[in-house]
Design goal:
alpha/beta, TIM Barrel, eight-stranded mixed beta sheet, four-stranded mixed beta sheet, 18 helices, 15% strand
Amino acid sequence: MFHNKMPRYEILSEDAMGVLDRGWRRIVSEIGIEFDNDEALALFRAAGQTIEGSTVKLDPDFVLEQVAKAPRHFEVQARNPANSVHIGDDSMVFGAVYGTPFVREGDVRREATLDDFHRLCKLSQAFPEMDSAGGIICEPNDAPLDSRHLDMTFALQTLTDKIYMGNVVSGVNARDTIRMTEIVFGGREAIERVPATISLINCNSPLRWDSRMIESQIEYSRANQAVVLTPFILMGAMSPVTVPAALAQQMAEALSGIALSQLIRPGCPVIFGSFLSNIDMQSGSPCFGTPESAVGLLCTGQIARHFGLPWRSGGGLTSSQVPDAQAGYEALMTMLPTFLAGANWVMHTAGWLEGGLVASYEKFVIDIELLRMLEAEFTPLEIDEDTLAFGAHEEIGHGGHFLGAAHTMEHFRSCFYRPLLSSSENYDRWSKNGGKDAAERAGEIARRKIEEYEEPPMDPAIRAELQEYVVRRRRELGD
């Protein structure tokens, strides 16, 4: 977990915030939000909101009353207490890529497997910069559809000792995740006291929360587990083409979802989610790492702070098909504003490729390098007598060099950032060592990390109970 002590980069004026505020209020009250779930509709009806079929027309002041019940910050416990995290304030918590059906390793692009899921879990565990392997890192297509959530949750709980995300494919899957979490952490009371999962609840933008997502949201919020209420907006397809219109829609969707969680269980932990980018208006393809998405990200941080909510956005996003220069600069175009705006929960930090269709081993390591560099860049300078190094000037004088100065010898091991991946070799040495580009070097690092991986210890009785639960539930689900 990184504490971002730098000032936040805010670009919205007070007048602009006022316009956006009027915008989301009109959307929820005049157009309304669709909730495709009878229990959700009943909760809103009981709270005095206007129901027209499955559309809820919300009183904006009622929405704000519900939002005010959500905590400004909260803890999420990990199996290893040293890896527990704080969500909110100046903390930034990083998770791996999420939801990809394919993987890329070297020149091979293929369907993801359960073995890939395991190996990516191991990479997330191996890098201390990663706070979480996430949830559905990749979709293990060789595992049975109805029970693969059990395999993924078991892997997250055993191959890592960091926080993990809950499965949201259905209410059934959410209940299984919660029960397995109770086994690991010692019962329902323990996880209700301090949440142990974060789960992604995506809005079916524009303006619709679908039944599957709401079922999962109800289960997690009822159990006091954190949920990320995230509008999924690609401007030009799921929202109007302007950033302000997308922001107002995002506010309407996220705030309405947060209001539902507070109706389910007042005070339960929520995260204001944002996944905002645009499409290519010539082809219709999704685009990532764009200037528009960066501007939207900066605005979202300011908006979430306006409502007093922890928030999610950012990551190493790219549209590139391979881990090349485009993948690097587009990822930086997303990760830099992530730091400037101070996102609290960052999904897709490492491994995202090809618009989120692919989890790449090489890109995973490239993104870790980006993350390490940004954490160094966003660590405040220490300015004191030692860092001024006046004695070094006295020692060296005019026209000399500082390579052998006492101050240099004292600090040379830690004075500058030491790269994980980047090469600064001269051309001859680089050629002699194989002339490998960044992607090749990243692949080697990924393979080495996986080979050196050591599984974190777990109480054998807890592991056995988890295994027994997985076997029994797989049988009950018909797989």
